[in-house]
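Why do we care about 3D structure at all? Because function follows from shape, and shape follows, mostly, from sequence. That is the central idea of this module. The next example makes it concrete: a single protein chain, its amino acid sequence, and then its structure expressed as tokens.
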Amino acid sequence: MELFGIELPTSLLLGVTVIVLVYLYSTWPFSTFKNMGIPGPKPWPLFGNVFELSAGRYKKDLEWVSKYGKVFGTYEGRHPILVFADPELCKQICVKKFTSFYNRRVLPLNNKPLDAGLTSLLNQNWKDKRNTLTPAFSASKMKMMTPIVNNAADAMVRILEKHCREDSIFQCKDVFGGYVVDSIASAGFGIDINSQENPGHPFVKNVKEAFDFGFSNPILLIMFFCPFLVPLLNWLDIGFFPKRIMKYFTNLTEETIAMRKSENSSTKRVDFLQLMLDAHDVYEQYIAESQDDEDENGVRLVRDGQSDTHDFHKGFTNDEILGQALTFYLAGYETTSTMMSFLAYSMATNPDIQVKLCSEIDDVMADYDEPNYDAVSKMPYLDMVVCETLRMYPPVIRFDRQCTENVTIAGIHIPKGMVVAIAIYTIHHNPEIYPDPEKFIPERFTKEEKEKRHPYAWLPFGAGPRNCIGMRFALLEAKIGLVRIFQKFAFEPCAETEIPVQLGKTGFISPKKGIKLSVKSRR
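And the structure:
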């Protein structure tokens, strides 16, 4: 008997062979943690533990730590991920053994120009670009940016005044998101968006759409379960974000750069973009003057269009300028606006804390016309409220590093190439570190209480040399906006306020249905 021209025994043999090969492909890496002696949840063939994340990654991390301990292994598709939920092990990975965990995990999918952003750069190239960008976030630069941030806050206050007069309910993310977009665009890039009074601005639309993705994103599913198809996506030039969104931000940044270069040098701005442009000018001059040989540092430069044998030290290419700009736009919007939303919710549901915060703001601001770098630095309770908000609702649930060499940490032998993750949310909600972790208690962050805890028990901005470079700006931006708000208003729950707030299920901590509140005048 034949089946499709093949004798049945042969067809059966072929079918069995295919099934065996598919099964081996689907499960081959799943012995990784067993061989390492690391516990963890049992993976499904091909899919690993991804299905379990449908309940929410933050919930599963809490559950897995409770069941397997502070070190466990999971699989994202076929990829093993070693997870640590311990502050001391975080210190070992991010600081003590940093040279073994130099890089963040980089997805194999090309995603220009985002893959030229600081979070995606590797090795010495990352270090050089980080060193070049760091001065843009110095205290002196932050002080110079406060008038611009206050200007963005003016529009936010006007919007809240309108809600107050009309006794209307508002969506926190809409109000705070507009403020964050305007302050980032102005302080970082000298772009006047005015999105708060023009909510239909394409900048806002594109930023929101960029974050409107989850586990159903087909590109993400392909990377998890069919990584052999990624080269095809790269060949077809299909990135993680829709091309039209990337094209919009690319065009906007290029237009801003062209305008900036045409401006009189005597009126040069002092901001994030200008720092990169200055470094870019140095880069172009260096390339123009160099020869096809080694410079004094032994760096081989190639002028015939082929790749260099070494990442250029401190200059920025056009793609790298665009990559930093897009990273700044996207990361800054989502994290800061969400944090401000959670803080407003926490004040509305803890009115005694809100009264105490407003009292401190009133006392300090009696000596200032508007909040600035010095004023907010004199508000320790505001800092405690912000820190507690970021503890309860850290912007991301985990951050990761990729092992660059075989290394042993706490008796665990980690092979080169393995991805390790730090479970931020789980550490922040560990009752051994923070008693009653689901309760909002700003006093956890007094100087005395912080000294009692491990220094790596609070990780909303990551840790070590590869922590968030924009941390200082994000905190200043948030604090100035909050001071401007609490000088005039107080938040209250309304009939549509969800208590407790439900969190979404993606890798970002965000309210599933948003946060709706009402606002009342304090005077």
